[in-house]
Amino acid sequence: MLPPGIEFGANTGTVSPRKETFDEAPQSRYARAAKSGSIAMKHAAIKAFHLFVFALILLSQSGPALAEHKPAASIPTADLIQPADFAATLKSASAPKRLILHVGFHKLYTQAHIPGSEYVGSANKDAGLQLLRQRVAKLSKDTAIVIYCGCCPWSDCPNIAAAYDALHAQGFTQVKVLYIADNFGDNWVNLGYPVAKGG
């Protein structure tokens, strides 16, 4: 019989002091508490993740879908028309007739637009691009088309490159873009070029 506090090692045949039972209880209590704390943290993290995903789903469904934004600078220079040149062709009786499409914001179109141009929707939204595609769906692929926006400086325009790409994707080969450096008011209206209002 061994004295109290001493136990015989089963594998080694050595005698070693036995750990007191009062030492074991607090350690196991702390381990259980730490383990349950980490489970609670994981549970909270999963809840937060689900809320985040739910918020993303709600945000993605609110409002009209936006088209992918490409910079206006992606349009080849050869396909650009300067305002002075285009204004001159509008006044010329011998100039070939072109389909002129406004692909910017409707409020700006109603304030002032190029006479004879049609509003087809804001090309920075999928709905606007769909209207553009519907408008040209039955036209010959070699139809002369001029698109313009003028909502803001050329480098910031969210509409023009999307419209240009959509028309080219449909196979149109005669698409030109009116280059408006700053905005339609400064680069067209204030220069005395032809203007219509309403619509």
Structure characterization notes:
The chain is an alpha/beta fold and 199 residues long. It folds into 2 domains: 7-61; 72-191, Oxidized Rhodanese, domain 1 (3-Layer(aba) Sandwich), CATH 3.40.250.10. It contains 6 helices and 7 strands. It has a 5-stranded parallel sheet with strand order 3-7-6-4-5. Helix 4 (126-136) packs across helix 5. The radius of gyration is 36 Å and the shape is elongated. The model is unreliable at 19-24 and 58-64 (pLDDT under 50).
Q: What is the end-to-end distance?
A: 107 Å
Q: What summary fits the major beta sheet?
A: 5 strands, parallel
Q: How many separate domains? A: 2
Q: What's the tally of helices?
A: 6
Point out poorly predicted stretches. Answer: 19-24, 58-64
Shape: elongated
The percent range for strand residues is 5-15%
What would you say the CATH architecture of the largest domain is?
Answer: 3-Layer(aba) Sandwich
Order of SSEs, N→C? EEHEHEHEHEHEH
CATH superfamily of the largest domain: Rhodanese-like domain
Sheet/helix structural class:
alpha/beta
Overall strand count: 7
CATH class of the largest domain: Alpha Beta
Proportion of helical residues: 40-55%
- From the alpha-carbon coordinates, what is the Rg to the nearest angstrom? 36 Å
